[in-house]
Structure formats: C-alpha cells, structure tokens
Amino acid sequence: MTWEIVIGIETHTQLSTASKIFSGASTAFGSAPNTQASAVDIALPGVLPVLNRAAVDRAIRFGLAVGGTINRRSVFARKNYFYPDLPKGYQVSQYERPIVRGGTLTFAMDDGERTVRLTRAHLEEDAGKSLHEGLPPALGDVSGIDLNRAGTPLLEIVSEPDLRSAAEAVAYAKSLHALVTWIGVCDGNLQQGNFRCDANVSVRHPGEPLGTRCEIKNLNSFRFLAQAIEFEARRQIDVVEDGGTVVQQTRLFDADRNETRPMRSKEDAQDYRYFPDPDLPPLDVDDAWIERVRAAMPELPAAMRTRLAADGISVYDAAQLTMSRALVDYYEAVCKALPATDSTARKLAANWVLGEFSAARNRDDIEIASSPVAPAQLAALLRRIADRTLSGKMAKDVFDALWRGEATGDAAADAIIERRGLRQISDTAAIEALVRQVIAGNPTIVAEFRAGREKAFNSLVGQVMKASKGKANPAQVNALLRRELGR
C-alpha cells in the first residue's frame, strides 16, 4: 500500500535587530564567548526585561507579507524547561496569544504552485549555545556554554502539516527564506544559525488520520532538511511495516552518517508549564502602528513577479529574478541604465543577469553587492549587443574582461571593445565577399550540403566566421550563405 509523508515546518528566524529582544545587548555575530550576555539575558536577580520595539515591527511586517492576522493584543509566556544553555530555567515566548495568526505562503514546484497554510508566527528569545568541540585541550573532556545568543530575538514561524515530500519542504523553506530576507526581517544567514528549521515528520496511508510525528531539530541547511526528512520517513515506514509503533520523539540529524537519532522524548505543551510572564505586560498593537509598518513595506515578490511579467519578460524569468531581492534590484538597475526599456531590452537584460552574470557570481562565490561588474557597465555591454556592434560570443568575451576588471567606469565595455578590436562586421558587402570566398574554396562541402547534408552548412558557417576572425554577424552570415547556396 502507498505511503504518504506528512510534514510541517517550524522555522526560527533571527530578527535583524541591533540589540536583543528584552535588553540592549548586541546581537552581532562572532564576538568572544559570553561577552554579549547582559544581566537581563541571564535573569540575574532584580533585573526586568524591556521589549524591543524593532522586533515587534519586524513581526508585524512578516504578518502583513503573508496575509496573516496581526493580533491587537498578544501575551508573552514563560516556557519552562531545563537545559545547560538556558540560564533562566525558562524561555520567554508566546503561546496562546501570538503576535501573528494564520497567513499563507505560495511557492513553485515543477508541476505547479503549492500553498501552505501558516498556523502562527510568534516572538521569542533564543537560548545560549552548548559547545562540545574546539575548546582548549587544557580544559579536558568538558563542554562549554556560550550565552551570547541568549536573548536574541526570534520569530518562530509554524506551518500546518500541508507538505507531502522532502522536495516540497525544501521549496517551502527556500521560499520562506527568500521572503524574510526580501522584507528585511532576517538576514537569512544559515551558517550563523539565523534561519533554522525543525521538521515534524509523520507517515500514513492516504486518507487515514495523521500518524505519530517526530520532530527533527535545528536543520540549518536546505540539503540537510531534505536528507533528514527522507531518512526519517523511511525509518518510520520500516518501523510500521515491521509491526512496530512510531514513538513521538525529538530527533537530531547526523549529517556525517545521514541519519536521524533520538534526542529526547517529544514534549507536549503541558510539559512546558506555560504561564504569562509576570515581568512583561501584554503587547498592545494599534491600527496606527500596523499602518506605519505597512507604509514602509517594500513591493512583495508576488506583486513584483506580476509587474515584471507584464513588462515583457517570461513568467519563468520573473520568478527566478524575484528569488532574491538583491538580484532583482540589480536587474532593475541594468534596465534603468539602458536607453530603452521596451520588452526586447528587458528580455536581453534578464537573459544576461540570470545567465552570464549569475554564473560568474556563483562560480566565484561573490555577493551581488560585491560584483566587479556594475549595473551601468552591464547595460553598456548590452547596448553594444543591441546595436550589433558585438555578437553574442564577442559579448561574452567582453563580459569576462569586465569581470576581471580590465577596465573601469561606465564606458568600460567600449574601452575593451576598442582595445581588442572586437567590433562585429555587419556590412553586407563585406560579409558577401567572405561568403563567396568560402563557397569557392570548399566545393566538396558545398556539394554535400546540396545533397541534403545540413551539417555541411554548419561547416561553411564556421569557415566564414573563421575567415572574419569571429567578427562577422552570425545572423547575416547564415542568411547570406543560404542565399548564395540557393542560387
């Protein structure tokens, strides 16, 4: 009988505030251990937390972006549990009354779009970090505790169990990652733990009630997310098919062994003994606050995709460009620097930004902001393609030179073209002369073409391009060569 995987995702997004959620301590990454843990963060006697307004702004911004309901009153609660890196003995979170309820997130798959319902998004503080490796050898076989992350503001985003495969889960997580970075509520740095997913996985036969779920904690890689879900689903299916029962657990993913392993029995809400935090009053959000946040919202990816497609580029290209705010900003800057922004110019810009530019950036692992080719420089190169100064191959050579920094300034492309003598030959008479020369010098290949061998035509085109040192306009070469051979 067919098995169905059921997945829900809980995502911890670190909010992009300069200070922590209840104190003025810095959230900067990379400081020496325990240098950014204030008295408030570790709940020393006599201290009181003060809510960071910027964290609330970001939570509201997210709620508006996903079409959720912003609760006008939300409550902070203490989530009680013991762990070495939780010095308070509790975590301040939201439970019954979160800042955001509901909302949806739509993302693309190869066979169409999916829409996942969101249960909630709530504010909470992060715990510290336990260190088991990399400590000074003189300390012996011990673990260390770094409390720099304690009190870091998080927005936990909880989905309904609407996902049905590891591929869907990854597509959802990537789409969520793109959204939170797009609207500026999180920098999305997975390596620093600023975007972490917990996957709740269960299996069932289609149409049956939900199975017992296991939660896989702290997945900070899309590849690990997929591998962990696939392993856990297989593990649960094997347990049931062997006559066993899946036990509700919290599990960890071991990337080296590509398997999940038990961490602890899975707690339910009552195990945490939630109760309202007596040091924090209810959070009241009025309509004016929400409207201030709404007014500062950027254009959202879905709206921008629609606008870009209406401007003449393909729906696919619009979707690819809007996967990254930085990428689409670069594309729009290129378009703005072009003398004409009709659909032809926009298509050319999209092709190059998604093609040569993205390939070079990915190859060299360079952020868009650090690109050696500025939008105005790429636009200048595209103008030379449009006016037929350059062929496609020549343009790629010029782009490579731009990327290596062979010339600077907005006119760098023209400088490289002049220096290398790369102007395309588009003079019809000059190309006709080359075509006739090649036809006269290759009677055997001409005969093969006239006998029906199309590959022979490509050989003749290559001979003309070689004779022109690659400078002849390829489209004109093809047209004139066919005209001459048709005589």
Write a compact overview of the structure shown.
With 487 residues, this protein is of the alpha+beta class. It has helices at 53-65, 166-182, 222-241, 287-295, 301-310, 315-321, 325-337, 343-364, 375-386, 392-403, 412-420, 428-441, 443-450, 454-467, 474-485; strands spanning 4-14, 69-70, 73-74, 76-80, 90-94, 100-101, 104-109, 112-125, 129-131, 144-146, 153-159, 195-204, 214-219, 249-254, 259-265, 275-276, 283-284.
| Overall number of domains | 3
Average per-residue pLDDT, rounded, comes to 90
Largest sheet: 10 strands, mixed
Instruction: Give helix % range.
Output: 25-40%
What's the tally of helices?
15
Rg calculated over all Cα atoms: 30 Å
Strand content: 15-25%
Sequence stretches where pLDDT stays below 50 over 5 or more residues = none
Q: Structural class, judged by helices and strands?
A: alpha+beta
Shape: elongated
**CA distance, first residue to last residue:** 67 Å
The total beta strand count reads: 17
